Known about the structure:
Blueprint: H1 5-13, H2 17-21, E1 45-48, E2 55-60, E3 79-86, E4 94-102, E5 109-110, E6 113-114, E7 122-129, E8 132-133, E9 137-140, E10 152-157, H3 168-174, E11 180-183, H4 213-224, H5 227-235, E12 238-240, H6 266-283, E13 301-305, E14 309-313, E15 330-331, H7 347-359, E16 364-369, E17 386-387, H8 395-407, E18 413-417, E19 423-429, E20 439-445, E21 455-456, H9 460-468, E22 472-486, E23 490-498, E24 509-517, E25 520-527
Parallel strand pairs: 10-11, 11-12, 14-16, 16-18, 18-20
Antiparallel strand pairs: 1-2, 2-5, 2-6, 3-4, 3-7, 7-8, 7-9, 10-22, 13-14, 15-17, 19-20, 19-22, 21-22, 22-23, 23-24, 24-25
Helix pairs in contact: 3-5, 4-6, 7-8
Amino acid sequence: MGLSRRQLLRFGGAGSAAVLVGAAAVSSARFRVPRWSDDPFSLGVASGDPTADGVVLWTRLAPDPFAPDGLGGMPMHPVTVEYEVAHDENFQQVVTRGTAVATRELAHSVHPEVTGLAPDRWYFYRFRAGSVLSPVGRTRTAPPPGRPTTRMRFAFASCQSWSSGYYTAYEHMSAEDLDLVVHLGDYIYERGWNRGREGMSVEPQFQAEAVDLAGYRLRYAQVKAEEPLRAAHAAFPWLVTMDDHEIDNNWAGDSPGLGFDIYRIPALFRRRKAAAFQAMYEHQPLRIAQLPSGPTMHLHRRYGFGDLAQITMLDTRQYRDKQACGDGNTVIDCADRLATDRTILGAQQRDWLIDGFTNSPARWQILGNQVSMGQSDQDAGPITAVGTDSWDGYVADRNAVLGAAADRGVPNLVVITGDRHQNHAADLRRDFADPESPVVASEFIGTSISSNGDGADMTDSGRNLLAANPDLKFFNAQRGYVRVELDHTLWRNDFRVVPYIRRPGAPIHTRASFVVQDRVPGVTAAWQPDAPVHQPEPGVAAAPTDNSPR
């Protein structure tokens, strides 16, 4: 499935380790550059995981991104890729240059880690392969840890099923004034498509479920071929993680999800995970610290923004126990979900997370989280009916994390979440079994970019959730993303939605805004209209959904 860390280090002794994963190439390296018949930068450029003095850049050479073998139409041999970073988009004030070597082992992707940049400022970057220049990307470094910082703006998104509709939301996101984008998972969907978007057919190589390296590479190529997504990557640095569809719907730790039966054999599922992790690394702006080692990948990490914010990216898939009482569907009497030894984070990640509460100087502690942390009771009566794929299936870990935040005096804990294909604003209690338990944090769940089709402002499910969960303050099931602005006194959360995605060109508006005040846990409505701003057009059929069981 590729090169192990040990192999990379061994190559490093020979002077070419870093080039294999896209860091600076040795000056003596000489590699052939093909004569391009098509644009080798068809999948765009990206940057990510910024620090106060640097950032990781990304591109992948793929003149034929949909080639069925997943190799992007590239030759066998390595190719030298040059990069440069400048103060201006015309590259008259270049601050650093370097080369990286794109190899077949990593699908001719490169991940140069640029250092020595000034903190808290914007830069422009581009790549060159032979005589061809890439599109220009824009990125920025973070303010140094602890430095007084006035304001931060970022957006978060998730769940972009290609078949369900267009990525119109990213067109609008690219025009926002943001410092960062956070993607919380389901960047691709592994399933086979049996129908395309309206008026579009599905190519044969996308009709089968992705289970091997070629299949996963094609899924990433499919979404990255979308201009709105490429534009959003080029406009801002990103922090990325995964949820389940990057591998297999509802997978959990070493347990496969709901895909092909044959891949429930442990050895075959490990092979499938290894392929999925490698394809993710090949297509995202990730550092060498995230380079997979077979069926494992280190994705939980922290991002700091001066003295204002610390974003802790969680991994709620790789270390969790299998879902309690089934595969994550709704349960009523499920004692197993309350077991004290059940974990969604794993002991090591949980301890690392809790220790970070104490050690961070940031005013706002933000958890980048995949599945709903707050209780989502689906019965408005006396019984509690919850799904077990979310934190409701791992109550001990939820109580440990929220209890530690309370005990350690974390003043401003905010959880940002994806997965649900809905917008939620909710309070988080120390213990949801006790209605009098104090509110200790806030959770904002962002809707999908495209999954589940056009959606609706309100649904029967939404009305039921609002009635059954007093801590849930808002529900919406349209498509879009969430925009956040924070300073030292206030967090403002804008739910940005589009009225349709089954065809391109939708406008965007802010459906509702909520705030969290400094040292006042819980969400407060800042603005919310009394009625939906937009309803689906009469007589128009809904877009096909991604058929997710959630």
